[in-house]
């Protein structure tokens, strides 16, 4: 009999189908901008190739992170206990409202000050090695996020092509970077269930850029609520529409629900850049993307207001719910 002592959810193994129709977009092709728009409208999730980031940059950071994750658990727990805030090393606990998962992680702000602080906090002997690898990687994926958003602006025929990307170009942006490690769970081989690594959720930010190793586990929810598995691809990046971008496009782009299930045999490592605005910046539907007579679906809010509301929720909650308008009752003319 298998006993799981941690309060982590098990779900019945339904063997979701492998989703072979995930949009895969070659960024070097002239039609990439229109394909990006279509993918964000229909799925909210896509893969990009010919992104210009060398595999060595990805592998270098993953290798350095795994050196930390391979440390004795007691040593990692000491690092967790010593952290002054939610940044640094974390294990199993996701947020402050009871969500847990079979995951450990390194979380930091995507700026040089935070990268340096976390590097020295976790890597006592050679912090500069991780710091250098993280800095190079984050700089690369931030540029990729901006490139994708600017292509999206082009595809939407917006004259100001930085209308999305300029939200996290300033030094005060609230962008985050997270490295998740899902250790193998051999006990799952004895039960017909999957263990939740990271529960279902949407990403709050404007855009997420995700790269993982060649271990499956990531799933997305389609429009009809069906969960499908994403084929792994360690050479490409996955782009995820966030809540803020859904609001700015007045629901035209879809912030997709996704989750990670633990593997029984192999560790999964994912590295995610979350592009977000500064706390004081205001997020609202863009009038230039709304047809004549189209009503705004969301109230405008600052990023600080959104985050203050989001910290009170659980992972699976609809964080945008409090900012949604009842367009049948409210006249926005």
TrEMBL record:
Superkingdom of source: Eukaryota
Protein name: Uncharacterized protein
Organism encoding this protein: Persea americana (Avocado)
């Amino acid at each position: 009999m298998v006993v799981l002592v941690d309060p982590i959810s098990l779900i019945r193994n339904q063997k979701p189908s492998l989703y072979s129709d995930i949009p895969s977009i070659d960024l070097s092709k002239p039609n990439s901008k229109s394909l990006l728009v279509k993918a964000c409208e229909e799925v909210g999730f896509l893969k990009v190739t010919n992104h210009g980031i060398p595999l060595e940059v990805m592998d270098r950071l993953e290798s350095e992170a795994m050196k930390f994750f391979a440390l004795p658990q007691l040593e990692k727990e000491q690092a967790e206990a010593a952290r002054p805030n939610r940044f640094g090393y974390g294990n199993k606990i996701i947020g402050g409202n009871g969500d847990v998962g079979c995951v450990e992680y390194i979380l930091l702000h995507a700026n040089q000050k935070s990268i340096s602080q976390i590097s020295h906090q976790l890597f006592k002997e050679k912090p500069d090695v991780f710091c250098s690898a993280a800095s190079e990687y984050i700089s690369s994926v931030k540029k990729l996020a901006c490139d994708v958003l600017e292509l999206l602006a082009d595809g939407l025929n917006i004259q100001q092509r930085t209308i999305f990307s300029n939200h996290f170009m300033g030094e005060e942006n609230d962008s985050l970077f997270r490295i998740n490690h899902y250790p193998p769970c051999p006990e799952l081989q004895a039960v017909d269930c999957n263990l939740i690594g990271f529960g279902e959720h949407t990403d709050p930010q404007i855009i997420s850029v995700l790269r993982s190793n060649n271990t499956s586990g990531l799933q997305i929810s389609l429009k009809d609520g069906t969960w499908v598995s994403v084929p792994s691809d360690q050479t490409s990046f996955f782009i995820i529409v966030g809540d803020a971008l859904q609001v700015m496009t007045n629901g035209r782009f879809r912030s997709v629900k996704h989750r990670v299930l633990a593997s029984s045999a192999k560790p999964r490592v994912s590295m995610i850049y979350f592009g977000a605005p500064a706390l004081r910046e205001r997020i609202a539907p863009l009038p230039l993307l709304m047809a004549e007579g189209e009503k705004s679906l969301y109230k405008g809010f600052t990023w600080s207001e959104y985050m203050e509301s989001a910290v009170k929720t659980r992972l699976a909650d609809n964080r945008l719910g409090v900012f949604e308008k009842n367009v049948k009752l409210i006249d926005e003319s």
